[in-house]
Write a structure and sequence with these properties.
The structure holds two protein chains of two kinds.
Chain A: H1 4-16, H2 18-25, H3 42-47, H4 50-71, H5 73-79, H6 83-93, H7 108-115, H8 117-122, H9 126-141, H10 157-162, E1 163-167, E2 172-176, H11 180-188, E3 202-208, E4 215-220, H12 222-232, H13 238-248, H14 254-270, E5 274-279
Antiparallel strand pairs in A: 1-5, 2-3, 3-4
Chain B: H1 4-11, E1 16-20, H2 26-31, E2 38-41, H3 51-63, E3 66-69, H4 83-96, E4 101-104, E5 107-110, E6 113-119, H5 125-142, E7 146-149, H6 164-175, E8 178-182, H7 183-192, H8 197-202, E9 209-214, E10 218-220, E11 223-225, H9 234-246, E12 251-254, H10 263-279, H11 295-299
Parallel strand pairs in B: 1-2, 1-12, 2-3, 3-4, 4-7, 7-8, 8-9, 9-12
Antiparallel strand pairs in B: 5-6, 10-11
Helix pairs in contact in B: 5-6, 9-10
Chain lengths: 284, 309
């Protein structure tokens, strides 16, 4: 009598492993037992209800593919007929280790980078596009609560000195090597991206909007990125951020630089990248 | 030895007729609180999750008593119990003040990998012993009445030594837990595996049934599949009626997870459930002790005795 563990392991192999699934669907008398099943007690395999096992194999495989299709529609569009095989290869390499099903695809970008050199040679931007698509789900589900606080507008030098910004806790900055925003926009508008893209840095602020709960993707310039990166550091006041802005936009007169900075800060608040301004401890 | 679970069951106030909370139907579910007594969630969708899901949970808690029906406890797995999962679930249940919680009599993980499906178990003595021991550990940890649901399944596993009813009875009685009887699953299995659903339920430990699930199914190929994506058929309602003649329960819930119809159809099904419950004098006598969380029923202006109106 096989043990409970042997039964569970064997059936999971039959349901989840592609070679085992193919064997299950074939006339097993004619087809050689795949290596993944070679250690299994033959009496156990004989006892398996093949028709029922095929139902489970089909259902599990369908649900896994549906999840990947839902998270990575752009990658799927690019790869067309090659997509399903790639998804199979991914799940074989990174099977689901989390009770939340949607986390199953959290290594997909890494998988493309580390395991798919031929694919990346053809589509060098693919891993970054997968990262971009994954971040949409990650931001939507991010556990942080985004609490917008009533804060005074930062509109004077006094306030620049006295206050510091609070960042949206779901925010991530990405420095993509390829023009991911442009590629994603094309795919969203049902257009095919170009065959080749030269490297061209695309910096994005990606976060969840507190009102709509949707993920937002903002393409930003170097100066804004530096400002946000500065704000990510603890105890970084608006005064510190002003210094960063001045260093990133050289040639501006001091008054002009302050005005430019105030404009930027206001936009960051409007876009919910900054969600509050609090008084510096030192100025209390 | 007297069943601790049955003592607990006697203390639990009835919730009435409930509906599974689904994003696609959330707005209408909130708008019809006079026709829905409570709602059930899949906790995995809300554990460590913020944003829209979190807001939906909070809005639900303002309106309804909330019950958790999990997918990934994996009680039949030979892996170690996942205490990260249990800690996270416990936190959520505490917040929800759930009077009970449930999961499925199945396994969903092997060697710490989640398969993301409800997979059948061999009806064996080893499985009974293994599962009973795990339920006891889980109950000790969670400190809240626990129910196991009978699943629909499409194959008998190798290693069966007893009928499914005996398997369920052995586990529920030895572990001293509750049973969430899914009458649609009984009908689905009875068609796929050719047995009499009425004889099946008669052999179950019906006194342990605290909650009942009702749903629709669909024929796909050679099998009837438990899709939760179609209207409930008469044989399911009729089996529910039969079960309610034999035992009293604390909640009956309609599951609809896909192929969402006009909400009027959902309300009609809920109405029929309420009529069947009323016919069988369910939900009329409140339990002796007000359990945490059940006060919400009263806050909504509904005394338990009004649930059958």
């Amino acid at each position: 009598m096989p043990s409970l563990r042997e039964i569970e392991k064997t059936l999971c192999t039959l349901w989840m492993n592609k070679e085992a699934r193919d064997w299950l669907r074939s006339d097993s008398a004619k087809k050689k037992l795949p290596k993944v099943l070679s250690d299994v007690d033959p009496r156990l395999l004989e006892e398996v209800d093949r028709a029922g096992a095929i139902v489970y194999a089909g259902s599990i495989n369908y649900e896994h593919h549906k999840m990947a299709d839902r998270i990575f529609p752009y990658c799927a569009k690019i790869l067309k007929d090659d997509w399903d095989d790639l998804v199979d290869a991914y799940y074989k390499r990174y099977p689901s280790s989390h009770f939340n099903f949607s986390k199953i695809c959290n290594q997909f970008s890494r998988f493309l980078l580390e395991d798919c050199p031929q694919l990346l040679a053809k589509y060098p931007y693919l891993a970054e596009l997968a990262d971009y698509e994954w971040l949409e789900l990650e931001k939507i589900e991010h556990e942080a609560k985004i609490v917008k606080e009533d804060s005074p507008p930062i509109d004077s030098l006094e306030k620049i000195i006295a206050y510091y910004p609070v960042l949206n806790p779901t925010l991530t900055l990405r420095y993509y090597r390829y023009p991911i925003a442009e590629i994603a926009e094309k795919l969203q508008n049902q257009k095919r991206p170009r065959k080749k893209y030269a490297e061209s840095e695309c910096i994005m602020a990606i976060y969840r909007d507190p009102k709509t709960h949707n993920a937002r993707f903002m393409e930003i310039g170097n100066a804004v990125a530096a400002l946000i990166a500065g704000a990510e550091k603890a105890d970084c006041s608006y005064q510190d951020l002003l210094k960063i802005t001045i260093s990133k936009i050289p040639g501006l007169a001091p008054e002009e630089a302050v005005l430019k900075f105030l404009e930027l800060v206001e936009e960051l608040h409007q876009d919910n990248i900054f969600i509050a301004s609090r008084q510096n401890k030192i100025s209390h | 030895m007297a069943s601790e679970f049955l003592k607990q069951k006697a203390q639990i106030n009835p919730l009435g007729i409930g509906l599974g909370l689904r994003r696609e139907m959330a707005e209408e579910t909130f708008a019809h609180s006079s026709e829905i007594d409570w709602v059930e969630i899949a906790p995995e969708n809300y554990m460590d999750t913020g944003g829209e899901a979190r807001q939906r949970l909070e809005e639900t808690l303002e309106r309804y008593p909330l019950i958790s029906h999990g997918l990934n406890l994996s009680i039949g797995s030979t892996d170690e119990l996942n205490f990260d999962y249990l800690r996270c679930l416990k936190k959520l249940l505490d917040e929800m003040k759930s009077p009970w919680w449930s999961d499925h009599l199945c396994f969903t993980s092997v060697e710490n990998l989640y398969i993301q499906d409800l997979l059948p178990l061999p009806f064996s003595k080893e499985a009974v012993k293994h599962i009973v021991e795990r339920i006891k550990r889980v109950q000790d940890f969670m400190q809240r009445p626990f129910l196991l649901e009978n699943i629909s399944f499409y194959m008998y596993m190798p290693g069966n030594e007893m009928p499914e009813t005996e398997f369920i009875r052995e586990i529920v009685e030895k572990a001293d837990c509750g049973l969430l009887l899914d009458v649609n699953n009984v009908i689905v299995n009875s068609i796929n595996h050719k047995f009499d659903p009425y004889e099946f339920v008669k052999e179950l430990p019906l006194e342990h049934v605290l909650q009942i699930h009702v749903a629709g199914h669909k024929k796909i190929g050679d099998y009837i599949i438990d899709t939760h994506g179609a209207a409930v058929i008469d044989p399911v309602f009729e089996l529910l009626d039969f079960v309610l003649q034999k035992t009293d329960v604390r909640g009956i819930m309609l599951e609809r997870d896909q192929n969402f119809p006009d909400f009027a159809e959902i309300l009609q099904e809920l109405k029929r459930l309420r009529e069947i419950a009323a016919k069988n004098k369910q939900f009329q006598s409140p339990g002796k002790v007000e359990m945490r969380g059940l006060q919400r029923t009263n806050l909504r202006g509904k005394e338990p005795s009004a649930l059958t109106a």
